[in-house]
Design a protein that fits this description.
This protein is mainly alpha-helical. The chain is built from 10 helices and no strands. The longest helix is centred in the N-terminal third of the chain and has 26 residues, at 67-92. The two termini are 26 Å apart. The model has no long low-confidence stretch (mean pLDDT 82).
């Protein structure tokens, strides 16, 4: 993991992922793990992701002043994420990276199609308790298996019809819980070890630099154009990973 070529790959992946996050506000875990999944087992890529993702997600969760209000509304989903992570950790400890790569590809394809077709659902307030728990349970399991926090949590949070600021903060809360529980699951599975120190440091430097560039790009390029390019790229990457896992 400390070879110059691998460190360069980590830097490039997190720089690109940070750039995308800077432009459209999300996508850091999806892009970073998706790209690194071409070079290493997804569990190892997810382990490198933990620290830079946690730093950015905690900030996103706390800024906005609505954290307590959102926690009261999302508590069942957050509990579900924790329980789903336990299930995923047990599965991860008894499998290899081949199946995980395939499921990562499937997750990316679904996420890309939802984005391209602008699929939007609405969740009645009375259903948030039980449905949030199911969504959290599934999200926790998928997160451990693939390192991707987005499914199905992100579409569900969009369906709550929150205003823009509260949606961003709700995503931060969900991603923070997912990151912490994923770290615990990876530790249980034996994927967290000192050999990852150098890649983590590289990722911590590359991701913020990419975010700065992304913010500059966002001021000059139409967000809708970049969003479509982003989701088409995820679709191609997801298909590649899914087919590679099957063959």
């Amino acid at each position: 993991m400390e070879s110059w070529s691998m460190l360069a790959a980590v830097a490039a992946a997190f720089f690109l992922a940070g750039t995308i996050k800077g432009v459209i506000g999300l996508g850091l875990p999806t892009v970073a793990v998706g790209l690194l999944g071409l070079l290493m087992p997804p569990a190892q890529a997810a382990a490198i992701l933990i620290v830079p993702s946690l730093v950015t997600n905690i900030w996103q969760a706390l800024v906005g002043g609505s954290a307590l209000e959102l926690i009261r509304r999302m508590w069942s989903m957050l509990v579900g994420i924790c329980i789903g992570t336990v299930f995923g950790a047990v599965w991860l400890a008894h499998t290899d990276g081949r199946g995980a790569a395939m499921w990562l590809g499937v997750a990316l394809v679904v996420y890309a199609l939802l984005g391209l077709f602008n699929v939007h659902f609405s969740v009645p307030r009375r259903s948030e308790g039980w449905l949030g728990f199911i969504i959290g349970l599934t999200t926790g399991t998928v997160t451990v298996a693939t390192g991707v926090f987005a499914l199905p949590g992100v579409p569900y949070l969009h369906a709550l019809n929150l205003d823009r600021d509260r949606l961003v903060q709700a995503l931060g809360l969900s991603f923070t819980v997912s990151t912490v529980t994923l770290a615990a699951a990876l530790f249980y599975a034996g994927e967290m070890h000192t050999s990852l120190a150098a890649p983590v440091v590289v990722a911590l430097i590359a991701a913020p630099l990419g975010m700065v560039l992304g913010q500059l790009v966002r001021q000059r390029v139409r967000p809708e154009t970049f969003r479509k390019f982003f989701f088409f790229s995820l679709l191609a990457l997801g298909l590649h990973l899914a087919l590679r896992g099957l063959l």
